[in-house]
Amino acid sequence: MCFNESLPCSSDHTVHLTIGYHYIQWNIHYKSSIQTLLYSIVPKMDFDKDMAQPKKKLPNKSLLLAACAACIGGTFQYGYNVSVINAPTLHVQNFINQTWRERYQTNISVDALTLLWSTIVSIFTVGGLVGVTVGGTLSVKLGRKGTLLVNNIFALTAALLMGLSYPTGLFELLVVGRFFTGVNAGIGLCVQPLYLGEIAPTAFRGAMGMGTSISITVGILSGQVIGLKEILGREEHWPILLSTTCVPAFLQLLTLPWFPESPRYLLIDKGDDKGCKKALKQLHGLAGCDGERDDIEKERNNLRDFQAKKPWELFTDRSVRWQLLTIMLLNAAQQLNGINAIYFYAEYLFTQSGIPADKIPYVTVGTGACECVTALTCGLLIDRLGRKVLITGGYVLMSICCILFTLTLSFQDASPVVPYFSMACLFAFILSFGLGPGGVTNILTTELFTQTARPAAYMIAGSLNWLSFFLIGLVFPFVVIGLQQYCFLVFLAVCSLTATYIFFVIPETKNKTFVEIQNDFKSLRHRKAHNGDGAEPTLF
C-alpha cells in the first residue's frame, strides 16, 4: 500500500514476512521507510534537528530577577506615566486656574487653559523623543545596565518638580517635570529591550523580550488603579499621585546593581572576556553559560574590526536595508494602527452602553487588565508559535475588528444591543493588539540586528515611534471630526498592508541566533537580486 503517490512503491518499501529477514534488519528498514515518508509529507520540518533538540529547561532564577529589575525602572515608567496623568485632569486644571487668578486677578480663558493642559500632556512625547535619541549613544558609552541606572536621575528629578508644583504655586514645574518623565521613558524604551534581548538565551529570547510589553501594560494598569479616588485620585492627593514616579526609580536603584551588565556588551563592545564569563555564569548558571558563550563568540568573529554604528550609517549600509525598512514600518504601524482611536472611543462606548459616569474609571481599569492578560499570554506563546505567526495574526484580527467597529458605530442607534457589540469589538481589538503588534515589535527590533547596529536601530525605531505617537495625538482629533466612525477604514488599510508585508518579507526568528537571522536576510537579498536578473534590487 502506498501512503503517498509521490513516493515510489517498490519491494524495498514493503515489509515481507519471510523467515529470511531478521527482526533487527526489518526494524531498521521500517524506521527508515517511515522517516522517508515523513520527510516527503512535511518536507520543511527538520526531524533530525527537532528530535535531537533537548527539552527546554526553565530560565535561571537570576535571569528572571535581572529582567524584573530592568523592567521596573524601564518601560514600566513609560506605561505608568502615560496613564497616571488621566486621573487628575480636572484637579490640575483647577490648580492652574487658581494659580492664574492669584497672579493676574482674573480667571484664565478656556483656550489658554486647554493650551496649558495640552502642553503638560504632550511635552511627554517631546521628552521621549529626546530620550530615545540619546539612549542608544549612552548604551554604548555607559553600557546597558549603566544607562538604566543613570536614567533614574530623570525620574527622580521629575517627581521632585511635580511634587513641588502645588506648594510653590508654579504650574510651570509640571511642564518641566513631564518633560523629564518623557526623557526617562524614551531612554527606558530604547535601552531596556536591548538589555533583555542580550542577556536572554536563544531559546527564551522571545519570552524575555516580552518583558518590555508586559512591564508597559502593568505600568498602565498600575497608573489606572492608583489614580482611582479610593487611593490617590482625590483632589488633595494629585501632587503625590504625580510624584509616585519616584517609587519605580528607587526600586530599580536598589535591585539592578546586584545583577551583571549585558554579556554581549562586555565581550563584543568592551572586550572584557573575564567579565563576560562571570555575567554568563550568574545569569545562566554553569550548565547554560558555555552554549551562550559560543553564540556570542560567533557574533564577535563576524563583527571583528567593526565599531558601533551611528543611526545615519544604517541608512547607507546596504546589508541592513531590509531590516531597517522592517523596523521603521513596524514601529510606525504600532502607533498608527488604531489602538489610540480605540481608547478615544472607549468612554463614549461605555456611556452609550449605560455605564454610569462615576463607574467608567473602573471599566477603564478593565481595559488595562485586558492588555496585561494578553501581554502575559503572548509571552507564553511567542517561543512556541513564533514571532511571525503572532504579529501577522494580530494585524489580521485587528483588520477584521476595524471592519466590525465601523459597522457597529454606523448603526449605534439601531438597537440597544449594538453598543454592546461595539464594546466587544473594542476588547477584541485590544486583545489582538496585545497578542501581536504590542508585544512582538520590540523583540524584532532586537533580533533583526547584530551588536554593532542594534543601538542605532533602536534610536531610529524609537524616534519614529515617538514621532508617530506625537503625530497621532496632534492629527487624530481632526481625523475623527472629519471621518467620524469611518476613520477606522484608514486603520484597516494600515493593519492589512502591514500584515501583508510581514507575511511576505519577514523571516521567522524563533530559536535562531542573531547570526542565523542575518543569514536569512542575506538570502532574501540574494533572491531579490536574482529576480532582478542579477542586478541589485532598487531598495538596496
Task: Please explain how this structure is put together.
This protein has 540 residues and is mainly α. 75% of the residues lie in helices and 0% in strands. It has 23 helices and no strands. Helix 7 packs antiparallel against helix 11, helix 16 packs antiparallel against helix 19 and helix 18 packs antiparallel against helix 20. The two termini are 52 Å apart. One of its GO terms (biological process) is D-glucose import. One of its GO terms (cellular component) is plasma membrane. Belongs to the major facilitator superfamily. Sugar transporter (TC 2.A.1.1) family.
What gap, in angstroms, lies between the N and C termini?
Answer: 52 Å
The helix count comes to 23
Q: How many individual β-strands?
A: 0
Please tell me how large the radius of gyration is.
27 Å
Class from helix and strand fractions: mainly alpha
Overall geometric form: globular
Low-confidence stretches: 1-55, 534-540
Instruction: Report the average pLDDT across residues.
Output: 82
Order of helices and strands: HHHHHHHHHHHHHHHHHHHHHHH
Q: Could you tell me the strand content as a percent range?
A: under 5%
The helix content is over 70%
Q: In this structure, how is the largest beta sheet organized?
A: none
